[in-house]
Amino acid sequence: MSLFKPALILALALPLAFAGCNKPETNTSKVENVKAKRIVKDDKFTYANYDQVQITHLDLNLNVDFDRRILSGVATLDFDKPDIEARKIILDTKDLTVTAVEVSDTIGQIWTPVEYAMGKDNEVLGQSLTIPITSDATKVKISYFTSPEAEGLQWLAPAQTAGKEKPYLFSQAQAINARTIAPVQDTPAVRMTYSATLTVPEGLRPLMSASQGDLIDGKYQFDMPQPIPSYLIAIAVGDIKFRAINDHIGVYAEEYILDAAAEEFEETPLMEEANTKLYGPYRWGRYDLIVLPPSFPFGGMENPRLSFMTPTLIAGDKSLTNVVAHELAHSWSGNLVTNASWRDAWLNEGFTSYVENRVMEALYGERRAVMEQKLALQDLKRDVAGAKDKRLTQLKLPKDLNHPDDAFTQVAYVKGQFFLMFLEERFGRDAFDPFLKAWFNDHAFQSVTTEDFIAYLHANLHADNPDALTKEELNAWVYEPGIPDTAANPQSDAFDSVAELGMRFSNEEISASDIETKDWSTHEWLHFLGTLPEGLTQRQYKELDDTFNLTGTQNAETAFAWYMQTIKGRYDAALPEIDNFLMSVGRGKFIYRLYGALKENKQADFAEQVYARARQGYHPIAQRRIDAILK
Question: Measured in whole angstroms, how far is the alpha carbon of residue 111 from the centre of its chain?
């Protein structure tokens, strides 16, 4: 596969990069080059004609109706026209009921009702909404309401919350679920500012990925002045309390977990300081976190100003706060500089995983950073080995990607991270750190492609160091499947010792009580459990369990690793706690693989029985994934 892709920027940059490795004679502003680049529609997961018309601002005025489980109200969209001849704007919707559409004149004072058209429904993409616009139109106003089954919204009854008295709502717009919340151009290629007015039942507190505004006349006001892609629009409504960590960082949560979460995340300001030192200032004002109910299907979601977090991170020892570092790092990689399509998801997640690991090294030392690299590489190897379509193990994903969720594997996260580690090793940290900082600064609040990064890499790093990187090496990392031979192989003395103990226990050279775990971190436990040899006897499983109280442990990561082992080894004494875990945890990282392992190990009946009881409490995204796993 050739590096010489059809994209215009590659056609210009790569002959310079790999023909003679000569530096260009002129070096004009990279910011201006990117901003002036012709808009090319290259996202198959949107109906939007964003090459002709682009939303610049979204204003929402919505009522949050828990009885009907819908959002209802008006979305007003400001837009520009890259194509001045455009006479329609096409938006994405999914499970939205549109009741009226109006278009404004140039100054937005006269609104005219117009006939609009809803396209054919598609299971993945939903329906297009086509609105005619005049030559001088600059705004459209859409009255609509959402569906109770909207995949981007989860409505929890009071009984499904910790307090048991008030309901809860939270959203998850990534990757293409913003269209289930509002009619938008639901592609990361389009960035917009947004504002919102929310009306909620008395006694509930709404939050959004924006400045948390004032309560005026019974309505809450929000504003996001920085342009963001649609997937970063977020909302949470519930019996939510707040605890400050410092003057611009704090934690929101239900009362039961608030103090524990604030203590667990108290080092977030140190993470922000480390990020700022490496990659430039934090540009979003406040940085708050909200701990959502257990049904939240991810470890975290990087919604700007308000990261959504799973309660499974509250381990009591700060051992899982690398997820906080990851979501905070998105404030530079992903939110500030965004992949233009989900084919380039590694530009979000691989960069963020790299930045996260650098921050963990800066705060906690190289030993912890290397252990996390080692665990991540194990996960990557598992995903690469299990990939049915090997093209999905490329960083630049194929054009015929079936669903954007298919982009979110360890390939985007860890292969992307290890690619940047490879570049750091080849060019040297002293050169690579300023380069990465400049990448974030020069492309701030823009959406970019893999080819943009390759061109920037050449112009700003490779041209001055032509022998550091070959075309074949770059091609292997970006456009070829699998893990390149040039990938780092992190070595951890702590992990070597842990694995040796597991082997000796398996061979019955030592007993479980001989294994000294007092100083082990969660990382050592995960490596120990993840590398236990095949063929442990039932007696050995019970010995480990009795010695270390593994079944029912409150550390979700350790519990998951242990349960995966017990399923493979048919240690059925753990099944009641696996049942409890699946009933009380909705994080996809855990439950997808647990259900899959149960099915693979001839315990599908048990899995289906648990799922029949647990399904209603899972997020719609998780329901879709587990339906596919079991059926």
Answer: 38
Q: What is the pLDDT of residues 11-20, one digit of tens each?
A: 323 333 443 3
- Record the tokens describing residue 430, joined without a space: 């002293």
Q: Are 345 and 339 in contact (CB under 8 A)?
A: yes
Cα(447)–Cα(436) distance, integer angstroms: 16
Alpha carbon distance 406, 400 (integer Å): 11
Question: Distance (Å, rounded) from C-alpha 332 to C-alpha 190?
Answer: 17
Confidence at 33, pLDDT banded by 50, 70, 90: very low
Does this model's pTM top 0.70? My answer is yes
**CA within 13 Å, CB half, 430:** 0
* Distance, C-alpha 26 to centroid of its chain: 38
Task: Name residue 113's amino acid.
Answer: P
Number of C-alpha atoms within 13 angstroms, CB side, residue 558? 20
Neighbours of 19 (CB within 10 A): 9
Spatial CA neighbour of 286 closest among 226, 202, 206: 226
**Contact call for residues 91 and 183 (beta carbons, < 8 A):** yes
DSSP 8-state class, residue 95? S
Q: How far apart are CA 169 and CA 620, in angstroms?
A: 13
CA neighbours within 13 Å on the CB side: how many for 310? 26
Q: List Cβ neighbours of 168 (8 Å cut-off, separation of 6 or more).
A: 155, 156, 160, 161, 236, 237, 238, 239, 293
Decide if pLDDT at 551 tops 80: yes
Rounded Cα distance, 156 and 295, in Å? 9
Name the residues annotated as catalytic: 327, 413
Look at residue 101 and give its three-state secondary structure.
Answer: strand
**CA-to-CA distance for 321 and 317, rounded, in angstroms?**
9
DSSP for 483-497, written as a single string: --TTS-----HHHHH
Separation in Å, CA 419 to CA 22, 475, 479, 490, 543: 23, 11, 12, 14, 41
